[in-house]
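ok trying this again, last paste got cut off
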Amino acid sequence: MSQIAAGPGGPAAASWLLQVMACRLHPAWGILAAGRLNFTRPIARSATEPERAAVIAVWRAALTAGLPTGALAGAGWFAHLDLDDAVWLPLARASAEHTPPHTPGTAAERAAAHPGSRDAVLLTARLVARPANVWDPPTVLPHARSLFRAAAAALTDPAYTDAVTQLREALINAGEVDIARIPAATD
């Protein structure tokens, strides 16, 4: 991955490779993309455990390779795969800290289902704070608002407070001033 990213157009090529991996393993996209991406996928099926393990290994290697900015954007497509959330969340958060992902709305939607996860809250805060383009906020903000409400209501762990605060600040900076107030605890 480092050699790909170091070549001409390297960050985009590395990102594209990650995106192709996601398309190859998604049951519906594999069939649709097979002709465009020049690989065969005769039947729609879920990724096998060895295929998921290979994607995770490549993703972890890419995260530790010191790749240039932009090289991990394609990892955003992994939000569409049936990877275990306990594995996906920390990897998605680390990728988003490096490079805003492709399909941030899907990542935010998936993260919003985990209000008790510090990684989910930090991932969503990053997606709100660093959109890759002007089209991202409308796809991310509804999920960020939902996650913020749920995370703030479940706020019990002091180590988790910093993550909720980061999401709150990201929402405020995105113009979501009213929604970003931490709700008062109800007795």
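PB: full thing came through this time. Confidence is low (pLDDT under 50) at residues 30-35.
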